[in-house]
């Protein structure tokens, strides 16, 4: 909550600086302002908005809040607390792309954070001992189902937790996966 709340404050200040630099707080005016990059507030606004995006989408160095959100009391609250926030950060980056992208600061900050997130995610791809012991298997099943993961995905979780002597709760996983598949198997996904 502190990270995403701080990101929200960074977004508020960043957009205030961007609007002040643009001379308007209308998004259409901000996006069409060709002289915006020359304003002294532009760099600070860009950095603050990028911090907001990184906190919302759990990018490095703000990735640590996401596992806590995934252990929410129910699959629905886990989804709302994690996936919605991640999408908000990605949407914000995409929406402000015409104004913020194309600068050296953008390239190095976004590229560096993206690369660090990629490498960190690759290193932490398997479940830890604590995750295997405390994870809500229904939530894991739901996430796998809503993402359209194959049915044998539980095997990967079993192998990851076997080295810690933990066996996943198959019934909870399957109940969650079934609920997730109901979300996934919709016309917009080709089903």
Q: Gap between N and C termini, in Å?
A: 36 Å
Major sheet description: none
Overall shape: it is elongated
The residue-averaged pLDDT reads 81
The share of residues in helices is 55-70%
**Rg result:** 20 Å
Could you give the count of β-strands? 0
What's the SSE pattern?
Answer: HHHHHHHHHHH
Structural class: mainly alpha
Low-confidence runs (pLDDT<50, min 5 residues)? Answer: none
Query: Oligomeric state of the chains?
Result: single chain
Number of helices: 11
Strand content: under 5%
Please characterize this protein's 3D structure.
This protein is an all-alpha fold. The chain contains eleven helices and no strands. It has helices at 2-22, 27-32, 42-56, 66-70, 75-95, 97-100, 104-123, 129-134, 137-146, 153-162, 170-184. Helix 3 (42-56) runs antiparallel to helix 5 and helix 9 (137-146) runs parallel beside helix 11. The chain is elongated. It starts with a helix and ends in a 7-residue tail after the last helix.
Task: Give structural attributes.
191 residues, 11 helices, mainly alpha
């Amino acid at each position: 909550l502190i990270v995403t709340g701080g990101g929200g404050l960074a977004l508020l200040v960043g957009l205030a600086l961007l609007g002040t630099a643009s001379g308007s707080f209308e998004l259409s005016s901000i996006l069409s302002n060709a002289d915006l990059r020359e304003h002294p507030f532009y760099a600070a606004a860009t950095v603050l908005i990028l911090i907001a995006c990184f906190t919302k989408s759990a990018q490095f160095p703000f990735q640590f809040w996401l596992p806590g959100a995934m252990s929410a009391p129910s699959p629905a609250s886990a989804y709302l607390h994690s996936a919605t926030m991640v999408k908000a950060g990605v949407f914000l980056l995409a929406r402000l792309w015409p104004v913020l992208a194309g600068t050296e600061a953008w390239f190095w900050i976004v590229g560096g954070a993206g690369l660090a997130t990629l490498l960190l995610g690759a290193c932490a791809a398997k479940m830890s001992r604590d995750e295997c012991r405390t994870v809500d298997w229904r939530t894991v099943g739901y996430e796998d189902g809503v993402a359209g993961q194959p049915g044998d995905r539980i095997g990967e979780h079993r192998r990851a937790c076997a080295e810690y002597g933990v066996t996943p709760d198959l019934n909870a996983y399957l109940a969650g996966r079934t609920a997730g598949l109901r979300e996934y198997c919709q016309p917009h996904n080709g089903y």
